[in-house]
Write a structure and sequence with these properties.
four-stranded antiparallel sheet; 4 domains; cytochrome c-type biogenesis; Cyt_c_biogenesis; 10 strands; alpha+beta
Length: 659
């Protein structure tokens, strides 16, 4: 009975979403306050129905209701409780329902926290979100229903993909989806602004918190996925330029550009049309990533489905949402009033350069990702575009981007003189040159050297920005402290996020100096790597809740002193007839010692084991930087000016459409 209730709740949510898409939009066009007032109630009602539907699916998984096809295909009696719950979204059908739920949460959030918005704008924003929600819920009901029954019901389920039975990947999808779906709110604001024919400073102030929140979640989701690849897949890497990985990076790049351009709209009422286009483009890329993962076009360890019917449905939804919004943009964008004028050498000018470089990198990644499937589709040729292409094309554009990141926060608005800014950054430049000299002695490859140098420049520039704001060492320390306490949290958050970029890039550059060996050893044999002695001391079998494991013990010593003991393992899942690796990592935040247990061989009565050993300098900094970036965004969101107090619209400002 529970699955039927969940299915009914999903159908009810779809009906409410359809009403949410139509009634408030009609009310806004007719200036009917009664219809516009329905928007929050419909959004909250849809959210409650989706929450109940999702809870029914989780309940079915916990209760091992194998009459539900989704549970039978992705769960098992022996599966731990945590993974029974998180396995709900570790498959195509459950992940679509989760996507719909998060979209409902976004609509509910606008309904609850958008009380200060003009009633017509609020109604249009919620209506656009309702239309997108209705499309995804219809997709869930027709081609991807997680409540479909199977008869006769099996006694036990097939279990989930063992690679997904991991805490990191258990929470990676909800965080990543929240980032994807979160950009639906700026998208809805953009469409509403186009319908209304009005973008001004108030609009920029309203959009920016939603864009920053989505960007924070997407940053955490990408970082968590990269970390999972690093410590679960066992190949020692962190980013493979996999097409599905790229599908998350593309909206992150345009979302970063959106966050910065929204600042210009808010502060200077410039870049209005460009910011609206970025809001549409970022959510469009999020939807496109969903199509790629679920259409069967891309083969990836991250891909959920290989069903053309589902791909055709999503393609139709993409055409409606993306095509419709771009058509609206083409028709209505010329009616938007022009914004403020600024000199090329100004903070606005550097933010424009920031946008150009971010979107150029996005174009490179998009081209490299989509070129192989298009070549296969059009000409039947199979080609591969991998790390060498992306390193050679995207990385060189990231270097000037980081140079401008160090300069941007110090530049005045509207018009600036470059020399005074450089004088205030003299010590940051000196520190960067010292770092360059020290690193050039150890790093011979040019690109990692330049990347690491620019990373130091970005971190130093972020510190210099705060030091300049509090006039450090130019006034008494107590006075500087008082100024620091009065600094806007948004300024502190921006500096922290920029510093996080520098920390991540330092980690990426240092990984170019990583060392690794693949060795075949017997128990008691020692191998050397990075000045450390790695000794395989024991290999034993151990049972797990739904697997059997082979666990190795590796002692790592430096000059005879025990540094750590690693326990890499191989797990065999009998129900799926699949074996996975469990990486062992010892970190001191400055480097990782990384061990992987490979195959077992019998050689003339002697048993040997293949080991993959890695020494990865500054590896934790890659994900630490991502965490710092996200914390910077959260700190910015905690600034009360980001959440309330948007400037009131003047009655004569902008151009209001009559249709």
């Amino acid at each position: 009975m529970t699955p039927e209730l969940g299915n009914f709740a999903l159908a009810l949510a779809c009906c409410l979403a359809a009403g949410q898409a139509v009634l408030p939009m009609v009310g806004a066009q007719r200036r009917d306050p009664r219809l516009m007032a329905l928007a929050p109630a419909l959004a909250i009602g849809q959210l409650l129905a989706l929450l109940y539907s999702f809870a029914c699916l989780v309940h079915s998984a916990i209760q091992d209701d194998f009459s539900v096809q989704n549970v039978a295909a992705n769960s098992a009696v022996a599966k731990p409780l945590l993974y029974k719950i998180t396995g709900v979204w570790g498959n195509h059908e459950g992940s679509v329902l989760l996507w719909a739920l998060i979209l409902g949460l976004c609509g509910g959030a606008v309904a609850l926290f958008g009380r200060d918005l003009p009633s017509a704008l609020r109604a249009r924003v919620i209506a656009v979100l309702g239309g997108v929600s209705a499309g995804f819920q219809l997709f869930c009901l027709t081609t991807s229903n997680p409540f479909d029954r199977v008869w006769p019901a099996p006694m036990d389920g097939q279990g989930m993909n063992p690679l997904l039975q991991d805490p990191g990947l258990a929470f990676h999808p909800p965080i990543l989806y929240t980032g994807y779906v979160g950009f639906a709110v700026p998208f809805a604001f953009a469409v509403a602004a186009l319908i209304e024919g009005r973008v001004d400073a108030s609009w920029g102030r309203w959009v920016r918190p939603w864009a920053v929140a989505a960007w924070c979640f997407l940053t955490c989701g990408i970082a968590l996925g990269s970390w999972w690849s690093y410590y679960v897949l066992g190949w020692g890497g962190y980013w493979f330029w996999d097409p599905v990985e790229n599908a998350s990076l593309i909206p992150w790049l345009t979302g970063t550009a959106l966050v910065h351009s929204a600042i210009v709209v808010e502060k200077r009422e410039a870049l209005k049309i460009w910011t609206v286009l970025l809001a549409i483009g970022t959510f469009s890329f999020s939807l496109s990533g969903t199509f790629l993962v679920r259409s069967g076009i891309l083969n990836s360890v991250h891909a959920f489905a290989n069903d053309p019917a589902r791909g055709i449905f999503i393609l139709g939804l993409l055409g409606l949402v993306i095509g419709g919004s771009l058509l609206l943009f083409a028709i209505r964008a010329p009616s938007l009033t022009a914004g403020g004028v600024f000199a090329p050498v100004s903070r606005e000018g550097l933010l424009v350069l920031n946008n150009i470089l971010l979107c150029s990198i996005c174009a490179v990644v998009l081209t490299g990702t989509m070129y192989p499937p298009f070549m296969s589709l059009l000409f039947g040729k199979t080609i591969s575009v991998g790390k060498p292409f992306f390193d050679a094309t995207a990385a060189p554009m990231a270097i000037p981007l980081m140079v401008f990141m160090g300069l941007g926060p110090m530049m005045p608005w509207k018009r600036a003189q470059l020399w005074p800014v450089l004088r205030r950054l003299w010590w940051a430049g000196a520190l960067t040159m010292v770092a360059f000299a020290l690193m050039a002695w150890r790093v011979r490859d040019l690109l990692p050297l330049l990347a690491a140098t620019c990373a130091v420049w970005v971190i130093a520039g972020s510190i210099a920005d705060i030091a300049e704001r509090i006039r450090l060492f130019r006034i008494p320390v107590g006075a500087s402290w008082q100024r620091a306490r009065m600094l806007p949290r948004a300024a502190l958050g921006a500096a922290l996020a920029h510093a996080g970029v520098g920390v991540s890039v330092l980690g990426l550059a240092a990984m170019s100096q990583a060392q690794h060996r693949i060795v075949e050893v017997h128990v008691g044999q020692t191998e050397m790597l990075a000045g450390d002695a790695w000794t395989l001391t024991d290999v034993r079998a151990a049972p797990g809740p739904n697997y059997t494991a082979l666990i190795a013990t590796i002692e790592v010593r430096h000059d005879g002193r025990l540094v750590t003991v690693l326990h890499p393992a191989k797990r065999t899942f009998a129900s799926q007839n699949q074996t996975t690796t469990e990486v062992a990592i010892h970190t001191n935040l400055m480097s990782d010692l990384y061990g992987v247990l490979g195959d077992r061989h019998e050689n003339g009565g002697e048993t040997t084991y293949v080991l993959r050993l890695h020494y990865n300098p500054l590896a934790p900094w890659m994900w630490l930087g991502g965490l710092i970036m996200a914390l910077g965004g959260v700190l910015s969101l905690s600034d009360r000016r980001m959440r309330v107090g948007a400037p009131r619209r003047a009655a004569t400002a902008g151009l209001v459409a009559t249709s």
